Amino acid sequence: MRTDLTERGTLIIVDVQIDFCPGGALAVDRGDEVVGLINGLSARFAHVVATQDWHPAGHLSFASSHADAAPFSVIELGYGSQTLWPDHCIAGTPGADFHPGLDLTPVDLVIRKGFRPTIDSYSAFFENDRSTPTGLAGYLRERGLTELAFAGLATDFCVAWSAMDAVRCGFSASILMPACRAIDLSGSLEAAVAALKGAGVTVMEELP
Q1: Which residues are catalytic?
Q2: Which of 137, 57, 133 shows the shortest CA–CA distance to 92?
Q3: 174-184 in b/e burial notation, b at 16+ Cβ within 10 A?
Q4: Could you tell me if 71 and 33 are in contact, meaning their C-beta atoms sit under 8 angstroms apart?
Q5: Which keywords does this Swiss-Prot/TrEMBL entry list (predicted)?
Q6: CATH, residue 38
Q7: Using one digit for the tens of pLDDT, what is the confidence trace for 6-31?
Q8: How many domains does the chain have?
Q9: What percent of the chain is predicted at pLDDT more than 90?
Q10: Structural domain of residue 154, as residue ranges?
């Protein structure tokens, strides 16, 4: 276990928002359980960043934007395969707010993503075209922050994509599994864990 991770690392809190917690529009099972764990972690990390899904109404990734499309079905768009989601985290609505129990006091920066109407954004670093940056990599590099740890929602989508992109951008990345929860669509969690390990992300089964 990398016990010194909190001393020199940056915690990236991914999408701990009302719509991803029980009762929300795209609820992750037991998603609210990460809140207390993340609060404990963020109080110990030297630096903390949070991401926030921030979609316009009618976003192209919403099933409601496509005639006769069912939520969680998959279509092909110009940038690749896209899972169609229930409408969620619409900018300015209560569902897009951070979970009320999440302590934002230690957070240095909030990265909003998914605000472009025609492209989804799972990763904290890139839109789903894999090339349009959010600006997070530049922020981290300018501050000399190279060792990153990820927690939040959901393990198999936004958390995993963020951690793998961190490695792709030249950062060291760990995913803190106890402080994450997954959607797990048709085995997506198992596939994500395999992809994380294959990409060089450290998958931590215990918290630092």
Answers
A1: 15, 113, 158
A2: 57
A3: bbbbebbbbbb
A4: no
A5: Hydrolase, Metal-binding, Pyridine nucleotide biosynthesis
A6: 3.40.50.850
A7: 888 999 999 999 999 999 999 999 99
A8: 1
A9: 96
A10: 5-55+90-204
